[in-house]
Design brief:
alpha/beta; three-stranded parallel sheet; two-stranded antiparallel sheet; 3 helices; 5 strands; lyase; FBA_I; fructose-bisphosphate aldolase; fructose-bisphosphate aldolase activity; Aldolase_TIM
């Protein structure tokens, strides 16, 4: 791949799972053991990694707990990537499904 100008990367999160105590909200998991996994991926040739946080919009969501939990996980992931020599791709994905408009998507995480 590198001989053809491509830079390999890898998705390192373990998916979005229900956030305890927050119905309808998700938190992305996969921080446990991430440092060791990133070190191995670097040795195998990866130079960037991706982590996706899913933020749903609905009545009374996203909650502050959801935003803070996902922001914390994204920050820890990004710091570990940098520590291991990988460029972190941080993807906080605000889901557009529902009857809200694009402005609501923009305002939801703030």
């Amino acid at each position: 791949m590198a001989d053809h100008g491509m830079i390999p990367g890898i998705k390192v999160d373990k998916g979005a799972h229900p956030l305890a105590g927050c119905p309808g909200e998700l938190v992305t998991e996969g921080l446990d053991g991430l440092r060791e996994r990133l070190q191995e991926y670097y040795k195998l040739g990866a130079r960037f990694a991706k982590w996706r946080a899913v933020i749903n919009i609905g009545e009374s969501i996203p909650s502050g707990t959801c935003i803070e939990s996902n922001a914390h996980a994204l920050a820890r992931y990004a710091a570990l990537c940098q520590e291991c020599g990988l460029v972190p791709m941080v993807e906080p994905e605000v889901i557009m499904d529902g009857d809200h408009d694009i402005e609501t998507c923009y305002e939801a995480p703030s």
